[in-house]
Amino acid sequence: MHKKPNNKYGAEKLPAQRINEYITGVTQVRLVTDVGSEVMPFPVALQKAREENLDLVEVSGGQDTPVCKIIDYGKYRFEQLKKTKEAKKKQHVITIKEIKLRPRIDIHDFEIKKRQAIDFLNKGDKVKVTLRFKGREMAHSEIGMNVMNKMIEDLKDNGIPEKPPVQDGKQIVTLINPK
Questions:
Q1: Can you tell me whether residue 107 is helix, strand or coil?
Q2: 3-state DSSP helix/strand/coil percent for the chain, to nearest 5?
Q3: I need a labelling partner for 3 at 20 to 30 A (CA). Which of 14, 68, 108, 161 fits?
């Protein structure tokens, strides 16, 4: 029997899956091969793996007879890591980008903000449009609502508002999802 490996802290480092002598507390295992599967005593299955210079790996535990395979564990772990890296590459994390407006925004500034929002939506990000009032601008909240509705109207080809704009204190907020 091998000596169990130690990590730099002196603690035993167990593999992610139970392999070889790490499979404990079982008397019999179901050994799955290319031909089929059969139930056999654990020491016999471990001896078969050693004869082939491979590892006995527990594929499915938590049963009366755990399911095991005889495979090269190093190669198996490498394939698993490769699959998880590929899966991470393919997923896109949706982030929320914020565009801040003012009720008295200039036309040119509005167009720049609109272009930025379109870029964010085309990349698949959500856009939070915030229009903030200062001082006496609160008396004319309808001007702010008109600016917000114009932004939603201009972005309708690229995104759909999650909900209509809502006035929350000194600001009007809406969230736009990409199409």
A1: helix
A2: 35, 30, 35
A3: 68
Rounded average pLDDT over 71-100? 86
Let me know if residue 122 belongs to a domain: yes
107-122 helix and 141-154 helix, angle to the nearest 10 degrees: 50
Number of domains in the chain: 2
- The answer to whether the beta carbons of residues 6 and 12 sit under 8 Å apart is yes
Closest by CA to 70, choosing from 103, 102, 35, is 35
The residue that leads in pLDDT, 1 or 126, is 126
Question: Which of 75, 107, 124 lies at the terminal end of a domain, its last residue?
Answer: 75
Judged against a pLDDT cut of 70, whether residue 35 lies above it is answered with: yes
Q: What is the residue range of 112's domain?
A: 96-178
Polymer length in residues for the chain: 179
Q: Which of 37, 27, 31, 25 is nearest to 55 (CA)?
A: 31
pTM above 0.85, yes or no: no
Q: Which of 65, 83, 76 is nearest to 15 (CA)?
A: 76
Of the candidates 63, 65, 62, 50, the one whose C-alpha atom is nearest the C-alpha of residue 20 is 50
Q: In angstroms, what CA-CA distances link 177 with 100, 106, 112, 168? A: 16, 25, 19, 20
Answer whether residue 165 shows pLDDT above 60. yes
